[in-house]
Amino acid sequence: MLCCAVGVASAAHIDCTIQSGQLEKQLLVQGSTDAYVLEKWDTPSGFRFAAQWLVPANKLKTYVYYHGSKDRFALVHAAEKTLSEQDCQPAATLNRVYSERMEYELTFQCQWVCDAPSTAKNKGTP
Fold first, then answer.
1. What is the reported pTM?
2. Closest CA to 95 of 121, 83, 71, 77
């Protein structure tokens, strides 16, 4: 279990739901101190979704790449969000990214899964 910055609820992971075409994937993003650790998914339609949760800065970073006509992925969307206790609520925003090819899109939504406050430490004490 990882604990975030002082005054911010702890979280076990970040849960991202990604859709591309008829496919849907749940991606669990674990916290890390390493800026090179990314969770990713390559879709059959040419998208790559990548996410990272940097614990020291308490930031969620998301990236969407598209594998177009050249033999490489090109970054088409990047976002960064500093997490706070309010982010433990159900996610309200849906992100949609379009490819250069008509009718190809990728949508994603990430939710910070927060732990409930523990009362176990108070049990058995007068």
1. 0.78
2. 77
